[in-house]
Amino acid sequence: MQIRDYILRRLMVLPILIIGTSIVVFGLTRVGGSPIGIYLSHEMSPAEVAEIEARFHLDKPLPVQYVYWLSGVARGDLGWSGVAAAPVAEIFPDKLAATMELAVAAGLVAVALGIGLGTFAGARRNRMPDHIVRVLAVAGASMPLFWFAILLLIVFWVYLGWFPIGRSDPTIFASIAHPTGLYTIDAILAGSFTALRDAVWHLVLPAVTLGYGATAIIARMMRSSLVEELQEDYVEAARAKGLPERLVLRRHARRNALIPTVTVIGLTFGFLLQGTVVAEIVFRWPGLGRWMADAVLRGDQATIMAYVMFTSVLFLVVNLVVDVIYVYLDRRVVLGG
Amino acid sequence: MADARNPVHGFARHADSAWRVRARRGWELIANVLSNPTTVIGLVIVVLMIGMALLAPYITVPNTPDPYQMPRDWGAVRAPPGTPGHPLGTTNRGGDVLYGIIWGARTSLRLSLTVVSLTVVIGVIIGSLAGFIGGRLDEVLMRIVDVFLSIPELIFALAIAAVLGPSFGNIIMALVVVFWVKYARIMRAQIIRIKQSEYIDAARVIGDSKLRIYLKDVLPNSITPVMVQATLDMGNIVLIGATLSFIGLSEAGIAEWGVLVSEGQAGISAGRWWASTFPGLMVFLWALAFNLVGDGLRDVLDPRTESGR
Predict the structure, then answer these.
(1) Are the beta carbons of A142 and B261 separated by less than 8 Å?
(2) Tens digit of pLDDT for each residue in A19-47?
(3) What is the ipTM of this complex?
(4) Which of A189, A288, A314, B210 sits at 20 to 30 Å (Cα–Cα) from A273?
C-alpha cells in the first residue's frame, strides 16, 4: 500500500518537475535574446523581418511564446538547428542512437567492472587489492574526463595504433544497412562479422573513457556496502552453520550489498549522459553530445533547448525508476518527504 | 557533530568557558583529521597548489599587460619539454606550458573560491529560510530546488554559459547558478533536524528570540555538512569549470588548464603529447586533493554518512 502511494506521489510530481524544467530552459535561452537571428539575412527589409517575427510568434510576450514553443514540442516540432542546417527533430534520432550506443556500452563496462572490483576489494578488506581498488575509485571521482580521453588517445591511437577514432570505417559503414542506427545491432542484423568488429573496435576507447568514472562510483559503493553486510549477524550465522566463505559471499552478503549499489548505478546514468559531451568531442563520435557542444559554441538555441530538455526528462525518469526499484528491493527504506 | 549531542552548549552563558570548549574541540578535530594519511596527502597537494597560485607573480615573469593571458613565444612554437626556457614545452602557438600551469592554478583558485563562497552564502540563506520558517515558503523554495536538480550539472552549466556567451566570467556565473542548490538542500535538512533537538527547546524556554536561536544554536550546529560539501566542491568546480573551458566556453588564450588541454589537443596526432598532458594532470591533482580532504573531513565531522571504513 505504502509503496503504491509513494510511486503515485512521485508520478504526480514528475510532470510538475518537467514543466518547471521547461520554464527554466525556455527562460534561459531567451536571456540571450530573440532567436530570430537564424531566420534573417542582410537583404531583408524591416517589413519582411516583422513578418517573420509574426510568423514565428516572436512579437508576442514571452509567456505566450513559451506556450507556442511547448505546443510545438508536443507536436514534435523542435525548431531549426543552425548547426545541422536541418530541423532538430529530423537529426535527433540518429544522434540519439549514436549517444545511446556509447552510453550503454560505457554503462555495461561500468556495472561489470564496478561490481566485480567492489566485491573483490570488499571481500579482501584492508589488504593490498582493497587498497588498489580504493585508490582507483578515488582517482575515478576526480578524473577530468577530457584529460583521460586524451591520454588514452595518445597511448592507444597515436603511439600504439590499436584503436581508431570516430564511429566506423566509411567503407564498412557503407557495406551494410543501418535500420536501427546502433551500429553493433545493425551489424548483427546484417550478419556481418566485419561490421560488428569494426563497430565494437570504435566503441572501446570512448566507452572505457566514459565508463571509468562510473566504474569508480559503483566499485566504491559496492565495496563499502559489502564491508558493512559482512559484519551483519546473518553472515555470522551463515558462517556458523558451516557455509563456505565463497557461498556466504555470493549467496548472502553480495545480494544485500547490491541493493544500495543499484541506486548508485542509477545515479551514474546522469554522469554517463553528461560525460558523452566530452567523450564525443575527443573521439569524434557523431552523437548528441558533440552536437550540443557545437550548438553551444555557435548559439544554436533550438538544439540547446531540445538537448537540455531531453536529457533532463530522461534523467528524471531514470531517477524515478531507480527509486522505485530501490524501494522494492529494500522494504526497510523509510518513505518520507 | 559533537555539539548537537552536548546539551551543555545550549545553556553556556559564560562566553569564556564556551570558547575554551570550542577551542579544545577544534584541536581534537584537527588531530583527528590529520591522523588519516590520505587526508594528509590531499592537504599537502592543496597547500602546494594554493602556494603556487599565490606565488605565481613571483615564480614567473608575469605577462603584460594581462598576466592571466598566456605569453606567446613565437620563436619556440611546439617546443618539447626540456627546451631551455620552456621546461615543460610550448603549445602550438608558443604558449609556455609551465606558465600556463602556474597561472592556471591562480585561475582555478579564483574560480573555485568565488563560486564556493557565493553558492555557500546563497544556499545557506535559502536553505535556512526554507527550513527555519517552513510552511508555504519551504514548499515553494524546495520545488525550485527540485527543478534545478533535475537538470544534470554539467549540461545545465553548459547551457547557461552558452547563453551568456563564451568568457571565463560567465563560467563563474553559470557554476554559481548550478551549485547553490545542493547547499540549500543540505542546510534545510540540517535545520529541520536541529530544530527538534532538546537544546533548541531549552533556548526557547529561556526566551531567546528566533534570530538569536538561529544564529547561536542552529547555524553553528548545522554548518558542518555544508563545510564538507564546500571542500568537495572546491575540487568539483575546477573539474567542471575546466571541462567548460575545454569545450570552448572560455576566452581562447587565457592561462587556464582546460583551455590549455584543448589547445594541446590539436598536436597529439603529431606526437606532441605534453601541451595537453601536464595541464590536465593539474586538474586531476586539484580535484583529487580536495576530494581526499573533503572525504577526510566527512569521516571526522559526520561519521554516520561515512562510506569506506
Answers:
(1) no
(2) 888 888 888 877 766 666 666 667 777 77
(3) 0.85
(4) A189
